[in-house]
Specification:
The chain is α+β, with helices and mostly antiparallel strands and 255 residues long. The protein folds into three domains: 60 residues; 78 residues, Rod shape-determining protein MreC, domain 1 (Thrombin, subunit H); 79 residues, Thrombin, subunit H, CATH 2.40.10. The chain contains three helices and 14 strands. It has a six-stranded antiparallel β-barrel. Strands 8-9-10-13-12-11 form a six-stranded antiparallel barrel. A hairpin with an 8-residue loop joins strand 3 and strand 4.
Length: 255
Protein backbone atom coordinates (compact mmCIF):
# COMPACT_ATOMS: atom_id res chain seq x y z
CA UNK A 1 0.00 0.00 0.00
CA UNK A 2 2.84 2.38 0.82
CA UNK A 3 4.53 1.68 -2.52
CA UNK A 4 1.25 2.00 -4.40
CA UNK A 5 0.15 5.32 -2.88
CA UNK A 6 3.45 7.15 -2.35
CA UNK A 7 5.42 8.38 -5.39
CA UNK A 8 8.83 8.43 -3.69
CA UNK A 9 8.47 4.91 -2.25
CA UNK A 10 7.18 3.73 -5.64
CA UNK A 11 10.21 5.11 -7.46
CA UNK A 12 12.60 3.51 -4.94
CA UNK A 13 10.83 0.15 -5.27
CA UNK A 14 10.86 0.24 -9.07
CA UNK A 15 14.53 1.19 -9.11
CA UNK A 16 15.37 -1.66 -6.72
CA UNK A 17 13.30 -4.21 -8.63
CA UNK A 18 14.84 -3.17 -11.95
CA UNK A 19 18.28 -3.59 -10.43
CA UNK A 20 17.38 -7.07 -9.13
CA UNK A 21 15.92 -8.14 -12.48
CA UNK A 22 18.98 -6.81 -14.31
CA UNK A 23 21.23 -8.80 -11.99
CA UNK A 24 19.21 -11.95 -12.66
CA UNK A 25 19.52 -11.41 -16.41
CA UNK A 26 23.26 -10.87 -15.98
CA UNK A 27 23.62 -14.16 -14.09
CA UNK A 28 21.49 -15.92 -16.67
CA UNK A 29 23.62 -14.59 -19.52
CA UNK A 30 26.81 -15.55 -17.69
CA UNK A 31 25.62 -19.13 -17.24
CA UNK A 32 24.50 -19.30 -20.86
CA UNK A 33 27.83 -17.92 -22.08
CA UNK A 34 29.73 -20.43 -19.93
CA UNK A 35 28.04 -23.43 -21.52
CA UNK A 36 28.24 -21.79 -24.93
CA UNK A 37 31.99 -21.27 -24.48
CA UNK A 38 32.45 -24.90 -23.38
CA UNK A 39 30.66 -26.12 -26.51
CA UNK A 40 32.77 -23.76 -28.64
CA UNK A 41 35.97 -25.17 -27.10
CA UNK A 42 34.85 -28.72 -27.94
CA UNK A 43 34.11 -27.69 -31.53
CA UNK A 44 37.47 -25.96 -31.85
CA UNK A 45 39.22 -29.07 -30.55
CA UNK A 46 37.47 -31.22 -33.16
CA UNK A 47 38.34 -28.77 -35.95
CA UNK A 48 41.93 -28.51 -34.74
CA UNK A 49 42.29 -32.30 -34.82
CA UNK A 50 40.82 -32.54 -38.32
CA UNK A 51 43.23 -29.86 -39.56
CA UNK A 52 46.15 -31.60 -37.84
CA UNK A 53 45.29 -34.87 -39.61
CA UNK A 54 45.26 -33.05 -42.95
CA UNK A 55 48.55 -31.33 -42.13
CA UNK A 56 50.25 -34.60 -41.16
CA UNK A 57 49.06 -36.20 -44.39
CA UNK A 58 50.38 -33.31 -46.50
CA UNK A 59 53.69 -33.19 -44.61
CA UNK A 60 54.21 -36.92 -45.11
CA UNK A 61 53.50 -36.65 -48.81
CA UNK A 62 55.80 -33.66 -49.31
CA UNK A 63 58.65 -35.17 -47.28
CA UNK A 64 58.48 -38.50 -49.13
CA UNK A 65 57.84 -37.22 -52.64
CA UNK A 66 59.67 -39.33 -55.22
CA UNK A 67 59.90 -38.96 -58.95
CA UNK A 68 59.74 -42.50 -60.34
CA UNK A 69 59.53 -41.58 -64.02
CA UNK A 70 60.07 -38.37 -66.00
CA UNK A 71 56.32 -37.69 -66.17
CA UNK A 72 55.03 -39.40 -63.01
CA UNK A 73 55.20 -38.68 -59.28
CA UNK A 74 54.65 -41.23 -56.50
CA UNK A 75 54.25 -40.79 -52.76
CA UNK A 76 56.03 -43.29 -50.50
CA UNK A 77 55.12 -42.63 -46.87
CA UNK A 78 57.26 -44.57 -44.35
CA UNK A 79 55.09 -47.00 -42.34
CA UNK A 80 56.10 -45.44 -39.00
CA UNK A 81 54.66 -42.11 -40.17
CA UNK A 82 51.19 -43.43 -40.96
CA UNK A 83 49.00 -42.23 -38.11
CA UNK A 84 45.90 -40.16 -37.41
CA UNK A 85 44.56 -38.24 -34.40
CA UNK A 86 41.33 -38.73 -32.47
CA UNK A 87 40.22 -35.72 -30.42
CA UNK A 88 38.87 -36.27 -26.90
CA UNK A 89 37.93 -34.27 -23.81
CA UNK A 90 39.32 -34.80 -20.31
CA UNK A 91 36.43 -35.52 -17.91
CA UNK A 92 38.45 -36.68 -14.90
CA UNK A 93 42.05 -35.95 -13.99
CA UNK A 94 44.27 -36.32 -10.92
CA UNK A 95 47.68 -34.73 -10.37
CA UNK A 96 48.31 -35.06 -6.62
CA UNK A 97 48.44 -38.85 -6.21
CA UNK A 98 51.39 -41.23 -6.43
CA UNK A 99 49.63 -42.95 -9.35
CA UNK A 100 47.53 -40.55 -11.40
CA UNK A 101 45.01 -41.32 -14.12
CA UNK A 102 43.03 -39.37 -16.74
CA UNK A 103 39.56 -40.27 -18.04
CA UNK A 104 38.51 -39.31 -21.57
CA UNK A 105 34.99 -39.00 -22.98
CA UNK A 106 35.68 -41.31 -25.94
CA UNK A 107 36.31 -45.03 -26.23
CA UNK A 108 36.31 -47.95 -28.64
CA UNK A 109 33.30 -46.64 -30.57
CA UNK A 110 35.50 -43.72 -31.64
CA UNK A 111 38.43 -45.98 -32.53
CA UNK A 112 40.46 -45.64 -29.31
CA UNK A 113 42.42 -48.74 -28.27
CA UNK A 114 44.75 -49.79 -25.47
CA UNK A 115 48.40 -48.64 -25.79
CA UNK A 116 47.59 -45.63 -27.99
CA UNK A 117 49.63 -42.52 -27.22
CA UNK A 118 47.90 -39.38 -25.96
CA UNK A 119 49.12 -35.82 -26.52
CA UNK A 120 47.87 -32.24 -26.16
CA UNK A 121 48.78 -29.14 -28.14
CA UNK A 122 51.64 -28.68 -25.65
CA UNK A 123 53.18 -32.14 -25.81
CA UNK A 124 53.08 -35.72 -24.50
CA UNK A 125 50.31 -36.62 -22.01
CA UNK A 126 50.43 -40.42 -21.58
CA UNK A 127 49.28 -43.82 -22.84
CA UNK A 128 45.79 -45.37 -23.00
CA UNK A 129 45.46 -48.13 -20.36
CA UNK A 130 41.84 -49.32 -20.53
CA UNK A 131 38.95 -48.71 -22.92
CA UNK A 132 35.16 -49.16 -22.83
CA UNK A 133 32.65 -48.32 -25.54
CA UNK A 134 32.34 -44.65 -24.56
CA UNK A 135 35.28 -43.95 -22.24
CA UNK A 136 39.01 -44.55 -21.94
CA UNK A 137 41.49 -44.21 -19.08
CA UNK A 138 44.99 -42.86 -19.66
CA UNK A 139 48.16 -43.41 -17.64
CA UNK A 140 49.80 -39.97 -17.79
CA UNK A 141 53.46 -39.11 -17.39
CA UNK A 142 52.50 -38.38 -13.77
CA UNK A 143 52.45 -42.09 -13.00
CA UNK A 144 55.61 -44.16 -12.31
CA UNK A 145 54.04 -47.15 -14.11
CA UNK A 146 55.13 -45.78 -17.48
CA UNK A 147 58.34 -44.45 -19.01
CA UNK A 148 58.47 -42.22 -22.08
CA UNK A 149 61.31 -42.87 -24.51
CA UNK A 150 62.76 -39.40 -25.07
CA UNK A 151 65.71 -37.78 -26.76
CA UNK A 152 67.36 -34.38 -26.93
CA UNK A 153 66.35 -32.42 -29.99
CA UNK A 154 69.82 -30.91 -30.23
CA UNK A 155 71.98 -34.05 -30.21
CA UNK A 156 69.64 -37.11 -30.37
CA UNK A 157 70.88 -38.71 -27.12
CA UNK A 158 68.09 -40.96 -25.85
CA UNK A 159 66.84 -41.94 -22.39
CA UNK A 160 63.66 -42.90 -20.50
CA UNK A 161 61.62 -40.22 -18.74
CA UNK A 162 60.18 -41.27 -15.36
CA UNK A 163 58.05 -39.33 -12.85
CA UNK A 164 59.34 -39.33 -9.27
CA UNK A 165 55.87 -38.94 -7.70
CA UNK A 166 56.47 -35.48 -6.23
CA UNK A 167 55.75 -32.41 -8.37
CA UNK A 168 53.29 -32.52 -11.30
CA UNK A 169 55.46 -30.03 -13.19
CA UNK A 170 58.64 -32.13 -13.31
CA UNK A 171 60.01 -35.59 -14.15
CA UNK A 172 63.46 -37.18 -14.31
CA UNK A 173 65.46 -38.29 -17.34
CA UNK A 174 67.80 -41.23 -16.77
CA UNK A 175 70.53 -43.20 -18.56
CA UNK A 176 72.25 -40.13 -20.03
CA UNK A 177 76.00 -40.77 -19.82
CA UNK A 178 78.38 -38.24 -18.26
CA UNK A 179 80.16 -37.51 -21.56
CA UNK A 180 76.95 -36.03 -23.10
CA UNK A 181 76.98 -32.25 -23.51
CA UNK A 182 73.96 -30.81 -21.66
CA UNK A 183 72.63 -27.26 -21.61
CA UNK A 184 69.91 -25.81 -19.40
CA UNK A 185 66.75 -25.34 -21.44
CA UNK A 186 67.57 -28.14 -23.91
CA UNK A 187 64.39 -29.45 -25.56
CA UNK A 188 63.34 -33.04 -24.99
CA UNK A 189 61.15 -34.78 -27.62
CA UNK A 190 59.81 -38.28 -28.24
CA UNK A 191 62.48 -40.56 -29.69
CA UNK A 192 60.27 -42.48 -32.14
CA UNK A 193 61.82 -45.75 -30.88
CA UNK A 194 58.43 -47.02 -29.68
CA UNK A 195 55.20 -47.53 -31.60
CA UNK A 196 53.26 -45.40 -29.09
CA UNK A 197 54.50 -41.97 -30.16
CA UNK A 198 55.95 -40.71 -33.44
CA UNK A 199 59.26 -38.91 -33.29
CA UNK A 200 59.44 -35.23 -32.44
CA UNK A 201 56.57 -34.55 -30.01
CA UNK A 202 57.62 -32.17 -27.18
CA UNK A 203 58.18 -33.82 -23.81
CA UNK A 204 59.86 -31.11 -21.75
CA UNK A 205 62.94 -28.97 -21.12
CA UNK A 206 66.04 -29.38 -18.93
CA UNK A 207 65.39 -27.53 -15.68
CA UNK A 208 68.50 -28.72 -13.83
CA UNK A 209 71.20 -31.42 -13.96
CA UNK A 210 74.11 -32.65 -11.89
CA UNK A 211 76.46 -35.61 -11.60
CA UNK A 212 78.74 -36.98 -8.89
CA UNK A 213 82.34 -37.92 -9.60
CA UNK A 214 81.55 -41.58 -8.94
CA UNK A 215 78.40 -41.66 -11.15
CA UNK A 216 78.29 -42.78 -14.79
CA UNK A 217 74.99 -41.06 -15.56
CA UNK A 218 73.52 -37.58 -15.07
CA UNK A 219 70.70 -36.78 -12.67
CA UNK A 220 68.46 -34.65 -14.93
CA UNK A 221 65.38 -32.71 -13.85
CA UNK A 222 62.94 -32.04 -16.69
CA UNK A 223 60.16 -29.46 -16.70
CA UNK A 224 57.24 -31.11 -18.51
CA UNK A 225 55.83 -29.47 -21.63
CA UNK A 226 52.23 -30.18 -20.55
CA UNK A 227 50.51 -28.37 -17.69
CA UNK A 228 48.45 -31.27 -16.31
CA UNK A 229 46.51 -29.05 -13.91
CA UNK A 230 44.85 -27.18 -16.79
CA UNK A 231 44.54 -30.10 -19.22
CA UNK A 232 41.11 -30.12 -20.92
CA UNK A 233 41.41 -31.46 -24.50
CA UNK A 234 43.75 -34.10 -25.92
CA UNK A 235 44.49 -36.03 -29.10
CA UNK A 236 44.80 -39.81 -29.16
CA UNK A 237 47.32 -41.15 -31.68
CA UNK A 238 46.05 -43.92 -33.93
CA UNK A 239 49.19 -45.52 -35.37
CA UNK A 240 47.80 -47.34 -38.40
CA UNK A 241 50.54 -49.99 -38.58
CA UNK A 242 50.68 -50.73 -34.84
CA UNK A 243 49.34 -54.29 -35.00
CA UNK A 244 51.55 -55.33 -37.93
CA UNK A 245 54.66 -54.00 -36.20
CA UNK A 246 53.80 -55.71 -32.90
CA UNK A 247 53.04 -59.02 -34.61
CA UNK A 248 56.34 -59.17 -36.48
CA UNK A 249 58.32 -58.14 -33.37
CA UNK A 250 56.59 -60.87 -31.35
CA UNK A 251 57.32 -63.42 -34.08
CA UNK A 252 61.00 -62.47 -34.05
CA UNK A 253 61.19 -62.92 -30.25
CA UNK A 254 59.63 -66.40 -30.46
CA UNK A 255 62.11 -67.69 -33.05
Amino acid sequence: MIVKNQEYQQSVFLSSSNSAVSKMYEWNNSIFEFFKLSAANDNLSEENTALKNQLINLQNKLSTLQKTKPDSIQFRIPPEMEYKFISAKVINNSTNKTQNYITLNKGSLEGIKVDMGVISDEGVVGIVKTVSNKFSVVIPILNPKIQISSKFKRNNYTGPLLWSGEDSRYANLTNIARHVDLVLGDTLITSGLTSTFPEGIPVGYIEDFNIKKSDAYFNIKVKLAVNFQTLSHVKVINYLNYREQKDIEKKAEEQ
